[in-house]
Amino acid sequence: MTIRLNIHKIKNYAKFLIIMVLIAILGLVSITIGSKSENISAESLRDEFGIAYTEDIEENGNVVEIDLEASEGEIEIFDGYKTKVWNYNGSVPGPEIRIKLGDTLKVNFTNNLPDETTIHWHGVRVPNAMDGVPGINQDPIEPGDSFVYEFTPKDAGTFWFHPHVRGSEQLERGLFGTLIVEDDISDQYSKDIVWVVDDWRLTDNYQVDPYFVTGHDLAHDGRWGNVITVNANLNESLTVQPGERIRLRIVNSSNARVYAPSFGRLDAKIIAVDGMYVKEVQNASNFELSPGNRIDVDIKIPSDADGESYKIFDNYTRYSNQLGIINVEGEVVETPSFEYPTNPYIPDWEDAINAEVDKEYRLNARRTSGGMGMMGGIEWTINDKAYPDYEPFEFKYNEFNKIKFTNESYRLHPMHLHGQFFKVISRNGKQVNELFFRDTVLLGPQETVEIAFIPLDKGEWAQHCHIQEHADAGMMNTVIVK
Ligand code: C2O
Ligand code: CU
Fold first, then answer.
1. Average pLDDT value over all residues in the chain
2. 179 close to 142: Cβ distance less than 8 angstroms
3. Domains along the chain?
4. Statement: residue 1 has pLDDT above 60
5. Model pLDDT, residue 364
6. Is 165 near ligand 1, meaning CB less than 6 Å away?
7. pTM of the predicted model as reported, rounded to 2 decimal places
């Protein structure tokens, strides 16, 4: 009896031991599998990126040299009335600079403004020292001084340039231009057109309202104007022939206004976002074009469209605004036939939703103590810091990185990252698969957005809200890639 009992006890004990050992082994195995799958997923996410865009560009030896001057001037937005502006080379928008992929651009820039300035080449992957951000990679260029910008863009596409000093005033007064980097596809369209969409806050005398960064602008979504123009025209129009296939590059240079261009009956497809070709084309209407964003739209004009006019409206707010009009007239031409240009290498990154967040940025505002002065008593903050107070964050070079923006405020924030293109992974925790890269993403009130990217361009890069008033009131920091 006792012996049997003991044996029974021993048997139970052995069972217990075996079970414990099994649990331990299982635990170990699952830990190793777990950590392995984490590694594998970061690595496989890197692999999935592949050659979605290149780290380096082969220069073709051709140097395109231009002189660029910023100065005061006048334009006529309303017939018969002069509006004083600041501009590049005498026009608003400034010059449409066109180069070929592989060309080196050399810009001899002179500042003839009554204010210091710099030029930032928005979306262009330039060497860090050419990025034009005072306090980070360039000293401001004083009135009367010059600076040479020289770089070889690594990507073909639609880019633009603007100052990075008090953008709330300098962009609003008219300082912006476009940089188009062409590839072989550019020539195949019947027309390649740039529309720079901007809004102005004009006084009753048709002058730029000189009260920049008002308390009201700061407490809201920045400075929204009372006049919308395309290429500084109230009624921009384009005349085409039936059958033409047009590439329309739309740039939002506004301080703060968001647009949702709508193309009505036109067969219009987005082939590129923020300069870079998409993975799959999508209908062009209702893309949210926030300050900084660009879309390239492929438009096929029907061959029986003689005499038609197509209006392109902005439908972002409940008041619809006409942006421009395409008038069709003349002989029918043969429609250029080629596949939509796309970038099949853009990763889907379906697993990215499960990858760890490397850095979180909380976006918010706070009242400044004293409440006096130019900024209307409000600062816009990233992680409770207002630029020039900031903490740079270091990204993992050539690896998968994921960051999370949490908009704790009720205002809009188009967040822009210099030097990198990223993909939106989720909105409010829900996975999204945008079939394109971006350099600027719009966060709505209280929205959370996760983005991911592979940093290939070394340096310290600005990251900020592209609403100029928010950026000038502190909503900027930097990231470091080394
Ligand atoms: Cu167009 Cu720092 O931005
Ligand atoms: Cu903002």
1. 93
2. no
3. 63-328 (2.60.40.420), 350-481 (2.60.40.420)
4. no
5. 98
6. no
7. 0.91
The ligand placed nearest to the CA atom of residue 361 is 2
Between CA 260 and CA 314, with CA 235 as vertex, the angle to 5 degrees is 10
The finding on whether 403 has its CB within 6 A of some atom of ligand 1 is: no
The percent of residues above 90 in pLDDT, for the chain, comes to 89
- 242 versus 20: which is more confidently predicted? 242
Query: What residue's CA is closest to ligand 1, atom 3?
Result: 122
464 Cβ below 6 A of ligand 1: yes
In angstroms, what is the span from residue 418 Cα to ligand 2's centroid? 16
The band of 269, judged by pLDDT with boundaries at 50, 70 and 90, is very high
- pLDDT of 173 higher than 80: yes
CA of 161 to the centre of ligand 1 (A): 8
pLDDT, tens digit, 9 for 90 and up, residues 364-405: 999 987 545 554 589 999 999 999 999 999 999 999 999 999
Across 136-154, average pLDDT: 97
Decide: 294 in ligand 1 pocket, CB within 6 A: no
Residues 85, 71: Cα–Cα separation, whole Å: 9
CA-to-CA distance for 150 and 148, rounded, in angstroms?
A: 6
CA of residue 461 to ligand 1 center, whole Å: 10
The atom number, within ligand 1, closest to the CA of 476 reads: 2
Q: Tell me the C-alpha distance between 329 and 332, whole Å.
A: 9
Nearest CA to ligand 1 atom 1: 122
From the CA of 464, give the closest atom in ligand 1. 2
Ligand nearest to the CA of residue 414, numbered in listed order:
2
For residue 323, give the amino acid letter: L
Query: Scanning the structure block, which residue is given the tokens 């630029």?
Result: 387
| 275 in contact with ligand 1, CB cutoff 6 A | no
